[in-house]
Amino acid sequence: MARSKRLFSDVRVLGLLLGCGGLLGGLLGCGPKLPSPHAQMSFQAESGRPRAADVATQVATNFDFYLLNLSWSPEFCATHAGGVECTEHRGFIVHGLWPQRMDGSYPEHCDSRPGPTDAHAWADIMPDAGLLRHEWQTHGTCTPYAADTYFGMVRTAYRSVTIPAEFASMSQEQMLAPAAIVDAFAKANPGFPAGSIAISCGNNRLTAVEVCLAQDLRPEACSGVRSCRANVVKITPPQ
């Protein structure tokens, strides 16, 4: 299935729902110290939120790498103005951290483990609690981690990507070639290897930027990930 189709499928799901600590360091060559999938631990959510017991499971790691999807929120909000994220006029937010296989396939809905202790603890990266629960059930359960550990990894992955300044300050619609968007992200993230960034689009509009990450969250070249093939895409500015 084409990546853009899955993105819009997830966006439709979101529309219906609406109506690193110690993990940092990948870009410096030291790799995030990810929690062992077989160890018991406690995870401290940020902003003074309470500590929750977090025991990882022994689900088989039936995937090769992660795909971090950073959704361009203004494009979603152009047709879903009542969305939770739309009141904050954000730019890129996390849509998901998806287990992927080299052949382009991906696991989904792997088991029925419980979701995060407090969905709102992750509002800085995923402001809609309904989307967050959907992402856990669809993708997070296919990792060997408990929910709070998984979303801690999502936060670490998100913070490892520097958003180019031109996207943070955009005030009017722009038209750019997908290759130019990739180039802007590559320049803002010089430690990312070639081929690790992909663009997702729909109807010739930017919908997301995607980054391929190894299981230790270091950026790596994508395999089996389809990037936007449009000549140019329109970019809706934050409203």
Question: N- to C-terminal separation?
Answer: 32 Å
Number of spatially distinct domains: 1
Structural class: alpha+beta
Task: Give me the number of helical elements.
Answer: 6
Describe this structure in words.
This protein has 239 residues and is an alpha+beta fold. It has a single domain, classed as Ribonuclease T2-like (Ribonuclease Rh, Chain A, Alpha-Beta Complex). Helix content is 25%, strand content 20%. The strands form 3 sheets. The protein has a 4-stranded antiparallel β-sheet with strand order 4-3-7-6, with helices on both faces. The protein has a two-stranded antiparallel ribbon with strand order 1-2. A hairpin with a 2-residue loop joins strand 6 and strand 7 (205-213). The radius of gyration is 17 Å and the shape is globular.
